[in-house]
Structure of SRPBCC family protein:
Amino acid sequence: MLHFEQSSLIKAPIEQVWQFHEQPDILHQLTPPWQPVQIIRRQGGLEVGAISEFRLWLGFVPITWVARHTQCDPPHSFVDEQILGPMQSWTHHHQFTPEGKHTRLTDRIDYELPGGLLAEWLLGGWVNSRLREMFRYRHDVTQQALKHHS
């Protein structure tokens, strides 16, 4: 099992950071423009049972990725898990922790690549570097969107 974590201090109260993530178009806002990802659908908000579906492009090959929210504790956390996609397993924990007037936003992902230990050894560093790029972008977008709320 591989692990990834990105944490940032967002200069806004926890309620506003949570509300930002509840927006209907949040996936469009948080998807880096350089990534070959198409958002197909989002059903529900952050609550348990909500579904997000993406089409990823690996060269010319489309890959469907579907995630379902399995836990939700407003305004502190929610969890989504891959139910269809390229990973052997994928669990993404979104944590919102108050720090004074600000919020610590932490994304933690536990995942397994298809192909077992050899695939993880060969590709794990590359996958983590792609995740680091994506979550830096997401946290920067969140910070910028909420900068006037501190």
Notes: Helices lie at 14-22, 26-30, 116-146. The chain has one domain: 2-149.
